[in-house]
Amino acid sequence: MLQFHPLGMGQQVIETTLGSMVFYTPVGEPWRSPAPEALPLLFLHNFGGGASGYEWAKVYPAFLDEYRVLVPDLIGWGQSDHPVRDYQVEDYLTTLTEFIEKTCTQPVIAIAASLTGAITIRLAIQRPDLFKALFLTCPSGFADFGQDSGRRLPLQVINTPLLDQFIYGLGAMNEFAVRNFLEQFLFAKRDRISTEIVQAYLESATQPNAQYAALAFLRGDLYFDLANYLPQLTVPTAIAWGEQAQFTTVELGQRLAKLNPKTVKLFAQIAEAGVLPQLEQPALLISVLKVFLAEGRSESA
Predict the structure, then answer these.
(1) Of 117, 166, 191, 250, which is most buried by a Cβ count within 10 Å?
(2) What's the predicted TM-score (pTM) here?
(3) Is 165 helix (H, G, I), strand (E, B) or coil?
């Protein structure tokens, strides 16, 4: 998927207990090497058919000159390994911990989306030493406050052997299906879905064994109630929420943020955006992220 990332970004690999994890970072022009003391920014994509680090490709270039930027494909997604397994939240808590420990020598600022944002909150509670701050877009465990907001298909359908994989092939492995998925569920305005976005999602969705992580998400195997965890968070956090996000609405976001007003220092609504403001309204999201980072620097000074 390297062709979908900006010029000058290179692909590197670290090993985790579940396999090789690919990540993107600057390797040449037009990007300057950041200073040795530059803070690491870790951009983490959401879950769902075709997800990958490309999701942040319209945002992270704005920070390449000042920060050390790392953009991984999570295990089971993108160009990283796709082990055949029943994925659980613990898999991502473990592999994210390993990734940070192997790539960073100082606490990271994690920028994470949707369910991955919720998992990052859980990791930051377990290992606050790994994080300097969190910036999250539409973070949700998809079972928040005891309500299942994420499951798309009846369990008896997606738990049926072979039928679940047929559904994945039908719904995620052709250009029409990918565009329809983005239009119906992820974007507020369909005219913002470029051919590049569709092709990047299709490239990720058609990797060998890509269906296993995607179906774990679809079945709800990875869901949990974020409301049970957020009050325990101590790492400074900002939340941005697409005003037209489906399933995980901005009202849900506001309710979650109110659980920990001391730690959640900023809640920003992104106008005319769905659950992926980083792809749909990248300029607005860059502005909010820059404000949060600047406030963090001033507080540290």
Answers:
(1) 117
(2) 0.93
(3) helix
